[in-house]
Amino acid sequence: MTPFDYARAGDVADALRMGAIEGTAFLGGGTNLVDLMRETVARPARLIDVSGLSDRIEETPDGGLRIGAGVRNTALAEHAAVRSRYPVLARAILAGASAQIRNMATVGGNLLQRTRCTYFYDTDGSRCNKRVVGSGCDARGGFNRIHAVLGASDACVATHPSDMCVALAALDAVVQVEGPAGARAIAFDAFHRLPGDRPDLDTILAPGELIVAVELPANPLAAHSTYRKVRDRASYAFALISVAAALSIEEGRIADVRIAFGGVAHKPWRAVKAEAALKGQVPDDALFRAAAAAEFADAQPLRDNGFKPLLAQRTLAAVLGELTTGAAA
Amino acid sequence: MSLIINGVAVAPPADPRVSLLDHLRETLHLTGTKKGCNQGACGACTVLADGERILSCLALAVQYDGRSITTIEGVGQAGALHPLQQAFIDHDGFQCGYCTPGQICSALGMMMEAKRGLPSNVTSDLTAAVTLDRAEVQERMSGNLCRCGAHNGIIDAIRLSVEAAA
Ligand SMILES: Cc1cc2nc3c(=O)[nH]c(=O)nc-3n(C[C@H](O)[C@H](O)[C@H](O)COP(=O)(O)OP(=O)(O)OC[C@H]3O[C@@H](n4cnc5c(N)ncnc54)[C@H](O)[C@@H]3O)c2cc1C
Ligand code: SF4
Ligand code: FES
Ligand code: FES
């Protein structure tokens, strides 16, 4: 690890002031950043610990929830309103990492966790445009079973590894940010980027900007929602494919629906094409499969991940089957 | 400020790079807590911070200044074992023993989580009280790997301890 200074931020103003200095990184639970620093992928000169900033979950006037960036992943999954009104979020969090990691990880850090592409971690032996822009991408022609099939670029085919973020994408969450240039609210789908020719940038955050909260709008669909994750072992593994979905049925037809996929792209993938194919239709398995096919029509599989579009289709069909038979909560 | 380790106040390291795990083992010579992977993947380094299970390998010691840490040395001693330690012995919850301190600290944290009603990935009703059946214990302990494959004994030891405590 490269040497660094450590300080705790007492409040947001404190964090912003200290965070404005070049070479500074914010520290949440450290479960991703400490690992990346040990591998020298990240080499900040200063860490400003923001894990003690807001850990509150509050009701908003419009009937949604405001989740402080310092809320631990476990605390969010455990919150009564999340379990009853946003089950997809509780389930997505509980499907990720291990209990120990969820106890440490913060909401802010979860949003900004970096890809698990092994070439990104391999500072000694691999070329990686996300680590060193312009150096090349060893994943494109290498082992790319976990990599993206949608929205990738020549420069980078990495996926975003978070489970929680897939649920937040389906729930139209809003990321509340404060920075040197003031405060702004960012729609979840606009928060993470596609790689393009700047895969070093995972999100649209500017240097020194701090995540202060994530807001969930009120959403009557969300109480009828779930998350399903397919992975190489039953627990404690990143997703190959995951699906977050919420839906309502009126008079035998799908009145409204939200779907997001994990494990398919550089960002949590909000499936607007699949949603459009489902709305107003009578739910059945053939429809679910057609909706997934519409979403993955432009998929560009790599050498090792050609199974993903079909696995995504089957997973979506299973999840929507579960939600339309009312079996899930 | 200071770290409270098993009830004793201890100075944090001067170098912020030192992990809680290395601080325990190298500075304080509390070698019960083990280093398996040093990257969050095995659970051997699990300790309790204010009663919550965490991975000491991914924790910078300075970040835990002011917090109360319990390691396996604080759970029980030779001649005065914690009932869960005895249960691991009685039900073959280990072979080489390397993962055991982490398994035991993790299980203690897990039991408190279940008591509070925290659901898991295999809980069907997110709002119901938790029953620690085999599948639940398996899922909740998935962050602790055992290279010797003593998992069945580990699950037995934990379940029987939970039943005995109920
Ligand atoms: C073995 C292992 C398995 C895992 N498996 C999964 C899995 O299956 N699914 C899953 O979703 N995740 C998984 N994870 C990842 C885990 O969820 C993340 O490491 C965690 O969510 C990161 O949160 P943190 O608070 O620890 O972030 P940190 O490591 O502290 O920080 C991560 C990044 O966020 C920045 N940051 C933190 N807080 C803020 C803020 N408020 N404002 C601005 N920037 C901030 C930091 O500067 C850093 O760049 C796994 C991790 C490990 C080690
Ligand atoms: S896929 Fe992206 S993260 Fe992986 S090696 Fe290529 S550029 Fe790096
Ligand atoms: S040593 Fe900490 S998880 Fe393996
Ligand atoms: S007892 Fe040997 S690793 Fe678990």
Can you characterise this structure?
Chain A is of the alpha+beta class. Among the domains of chain A are: 5-51, Uridine Diphospho-n-acetylenolpyruvylglucosamine Reductase, domain 2 (2-Layer Sandwich), CATH 3.30.43; 223-328, 2-Layer Sandwich (Enolase-like, domain 1), CATH 3.30.390.50. Chain A contains 13 helices and 12 strands. A 5-stranded antiparallel β-sheet of chain A has the order 4-5-8-6-7. In chain A, strands 9-10-11-12 form a 4-stranded antiparallel β-sheet, with helices on both faces. In chain A, β11 and β12 (269-270) form a beta hairpin. In chain A, α5 packs antiparallel against α9, α11 (272-278) packs antiparallel against α12 (285-295) and α12 (285-295) crosses α13. The longest helix of chain A has 17 residues, at 308-324. Chain A is globular, with a radius of gyration of 19 Å. Chain A starts with a strand and ends in a 5-residue tail after the last helix. The mean pLDDT of chain A is 97. Chain B has 166 residues and is α+β, with helices and mostly antiparallel strands. Chain B folds into 2 domains: 3-74, Ubiquitin-like (UB roll) (Roll), CATH 3.10.20; 83-165, [2Fe-2S]-binding domain (DNA polymerase, domain 1), CATH 1.10.150. In chain B, 36% of the residues lie in helices and 10% in strands. In chain B, α3 crosses α6 (151-165). The longest helix of chain B is centred in the middle third of the chain and has 17 residues, at 100-116. In chain B, 47% of the residues are buried. The A-B interface holds A 1, 3-6, 27, 29-31, 34-35, 38, 47, 49, 51, 74, 77-78, 80, 83-84, 87, 90-91, 94-95, 97-101, 103-104, 234-236, 329 and B 15-17, 19, 38-40, 43, 46, 52-55, 58-60, 62-63, 106, 109-110, 113, 116-121, 123, 125-127, 138-140, 142-144. Residues 115, 117, 119-120, 128-130, 137-139, 156-158, 199 of chain A line the site of iron/sulfur cluster. Iron/sulfur cluster binds at residues 115, 117, 119-120, 128-130, 137-139, 156-158, 199 of chain A.
